[in-house]
Write a structure and sequence with these properties.
Blueprint lengths: L54 H12 L66 H16 L7 E4 L33 E3 L9 E6 L2 E5 L14 E5 L7 E8 L13 E4 H7 L4 E2 L2 E11 L5 E9 L8 E4 L6 H13 L7 E8 L5 E7 L6 H6 L1 E7 L7 H13 L4 H9 E6 L4 H6 L24 H16 L2 E10 L5 E4 L11 H12 L20 H7 L6 E7 L15 H18 L5 H13 L2 H7 L21 H15 L2 H13 L3
Parallel strand pairs: 4-6, 14-15, 14-16, 16-18
Antiparallel strand pairs: 1-3, 2-5, 3-4, 5-11, 6-10, 7-8, 7-11, 9-10, 12-13, 13-15, 17-18
Helix pairs in contact: 6-12, 7-12, 10-12, 10-13
């Protein structure tokens, strides 16, 4: 869609400074009303426009917003929206409550957060981009900047951090919540009304560049130099019959799954009310490309651009990178478990620790508590954690699958509870989730790089989780640890593990993921990685394996996109898939630790053929070629694991002697392969 010149009287320019004085302090238990839009009192005086002469000045003005926010002073008393969640909440019905959360800062947030009805049942196909989509997107971006250089003003219609100048000369209506940043002039004003000041929301600024086109700036993680990827915002005052274009202009990664079929998620309040439709995939002309906007220091930002056609007038529509799952959602789900007359028998809840912002980090223990104490003491331990990276919301949906399965009534769930004690930390980074961060905590730290020496003050959830695991080991043998993650570059479900520990069978760490592939049609063993790079030595999976001595220590990765194998190839993953993979994981636990080790032995035989000893010795050079997002070391330009692994394997096979090749061939023939 080519940009059209905007009307001159549509141009309102805002460059606010300072923090917002709008604060909320009272919790309203009622669900948020439909954000129907009516014109407000007419502005009596138009703010003085900011003038610029060319596209370079436009880019420079944008860089003011693209720079990281000033360091915020985290404080437990800041904008709490209510009291902390205490242990006694476990006996409360949470389905309809608006849960109090603490942001840890004083920036204004909405009192009431949006509620959603899940997703649709249909499996949605990946988007097939046109061959020339990148060229067309770049040309459109160039045309846009050229036209903007001829205009007089920069039309900022939303900013989550700065006060709105639209409110300065307006008699604001009485409201119990924050008003929209932009105020409609009259009923003919079709400007979209943006909002992101809700739990897990992320949108820093919106610039109206044309009647139906907007440049959007995602807010970097608090106290970081610019970590972006997660977005979650809403628009109101929609109009059907028009094609809107959104350009998210400040991403950092040089490539994205949006170029390989991933579509944005949207949620229409009108569709949800009329038809019960939840989150679903929408968008056309989807492209991720390098923009002309320079980053401070070196390099350029990257833009995600897509078009959308709204189906209803005056609708409220949400956009998200992945299915949102908030801190409030977690506590509602825990509340449902504790209120269920059957499930509550198998789960115990306590607060593991407080976060920097004084939110609770929960610990759940699941087992058969009605057994004799001696039987409980003899059970092996398993630790599962999730959401150390806040923007990987698909990890929380996998966690929900674990909790529902382990507390369920199936025969497999009963066997697991009778033989294991599960200690589960469902959200390792509550502060980051609440504030809409992508990767870091409120302190600006990637918590999955702190496991080797976590600070009790700065990394409390990691410090106490690691301490919990050590105490757990004093009580019983801990046989497995798994940390749940989302992955932004690869497709499928897969795992990262470790290898090369002295005194351990050389293929031991590969057995569980190999069995996992047998149980799941959308898990791909070929995407798994098992070697440890030096930069990954402070991640959960490596510290658990190397320092705590737990051989089966993994991350379970879920693609933000979908699959490229099997019956689900070229389809998006939905909430059903994310929860099903947890069920498959639980079934694999039963196979791995079954007293009848037939499946394990069969897996070892197959692995021996895939990894002959001479090949394993030569390949085990200590490099981690996974390119893993959850264990990401900071080099987004690193090649994907698949390509590197294949290359290494080919090189190694050339080095193998004819004698060993003959042995391998005889083994395959004897096994009927």
């Amino acid at each position: 869609m080519q940009a059209k010149p905007g009307k001159k009287n549509d141009k309102l320019v805002i460059e606010g400074k300072g923090g917002s004085s709008l604060k909320s302090s009272k919790v309203d238990d009622q669900p948020r009303d439909d954000m129907a839009v009516t014109p407000q009192t007419i502005i009596t005086e138009t703010p003085e426009p900011i003038r610029f002469s060319n596209a370079e000045l436009y880019r420079r003005r944008l860089e003011d917003a693209l720079d990281p926010l000033p360091l915020i002073k985290t404080t437990p008393s800041g904008n709490n929206n209510g009291l902390a969640i205490e242990d006694e909440i476990q006996n409360s019905v949470l389905n309809d409550l608006q849960l109090p959360v603490k942001t840890g800062h004083t920036q204004a947030t909405l009192k009431r957060n949006p509620r959603f009805v899940g997703d649709i049942d249909e499996v949605e196909r990946l988007y097939v981009p046109g061959e020339d989509i990148v060229q067309k997107s770049v040309e459109h971006d160039n045309d846009k900047l050229a036209k903007l250089s001829e205009r007089e003003s920069l039309n900022v219609v939303y900013d989550c951090s700065n006060p709105s100048p639209y409110h300065e000369n307006v008699v604001m209506p009485q409201t119990d919540d924050l008003p929209f940043y932009y105020i409609l002039r009259d009923s003919s004003d079709e400007t979209l009304l943006f909002e992101s000041r809700f739990e897990s929301g992320n949108l820093r600024r919106a610039i109206k560049v044309d009647d139906y086109e907007y440049d959007l700036i995602v807010r970097p993680d608090y106290n970081t130099k610019g970590v972006t990827q997660w977005y979650f915002f809403s628009v109101a005052n929609t109009r059907r019959g028009h094609t809107y274009r959104f350009n998210l202009i400040n991403f950092l990664k040089p490539d994205s799954l949006y170029n390989y079929g991933l579509k944005p998620l949207i949620y229409s309040e009108t569709e949800a009310k009329r038809y019960g439709m939840g989150w679903h995939r929408e968008g056309s002309d989807i492209c991720y490309f390098q923009s002309q906007i320079k980053r401070r220091g070196a390099g350029y930002f990257y833009t995600l651009s897509f078009t959308i056609n709204f189906q209803h007038d005056q609708d409220v529509v949400y956009f998200a990178h992945c299915y949102p799952y908030t801190y409030t959602d977690l506590h509602r789900d825990i509340g449902r478990l504790l209120e269920d007359p059957y499930r509550k028998n198998w789960v115990r809840r306590r607060v593991l620790c407080k976060t920097i912002a004084e939110n609770d980090c929960d610990l759940l223990v699941i087992t058969n508590f009605s057994s004799e104490p001696e039987k409980i003491r003899s059970r092996k331990g398993i630790v599962i954690s999730s959401r150390v990276h806040p923007g990987e919301s698909n990890a929380s949906w996998m966690m929900k699958g674990f909790l529902d399965f382990l507390t369920g009534s199936s025969l497999d769930a009963n066997i697991l509870r009778d033989n294991f004690v599960f200690k589960i930390v469902p959200m390792l980074n509550p502060d980051g989730v609440i504030n809409g961060n992508y990767r870091c905590s409120l302190a600006g730290v990637d918590l999955n790089r702190t496991w080797s020496d976590p600070s009790k003050r700065n990394h409390p959830t990691i410090y106490h989780t690691k301490l919990m695991i050590k105490k757990f080991q004093d009580d019983r043998e801990v046989v497995l640890i798994c940390d749940l993650h989302g992955h932004s570059r690869n497709k499928n479900f897969f795992m990262y593990g470790n290898s090369g520990k002295p005194g351990v069978y050389r293929l031991q760490e590969k057995i569980f993921p190999f069995l996992m592939q047998k149980n799941s049609s959308f898990f791909n063993f070929n995407d798994c990685g098992f070697q440890v790079q030096k930069s990954k030595e402070s991640t959960a999976r490596v510290v658990g394996w190397k320092e705590l001595g737990i051989t089966n220590c993994y991350t379970l990765e879920a693609s933000f996109c979908g699959a490229d194998i099997g019956m689900f190839s070229d389809l998006h993953f939905n909430l059903k898939h994310l929860q099903q993979i947890a069920h498959h994981f639980c079934q694999t636990i039963l196979d791995m630790f079954d007293p009848d080790q037939t499946k394990v032995k069969d897996a070892i035989n197959e692995l021996e053929l895939l990894y002959p000893k001479i090949e394993e010795d030569e390949c085990n050079d200590g490099n981690d070629n996974s390119g893993g997002d959850s264990d990401f070391s900071g080099n987004d330009d690193a090649p994907k694991k698949k390509k590197t692994t294949k290359k290494k394997t080919t090189t190694t096979k050339k080095k193998s002697s004819k004698k060993n090749d003959e042995k391998s061939r005889k083994k395959r023939e004897s096994n009927g392969q």
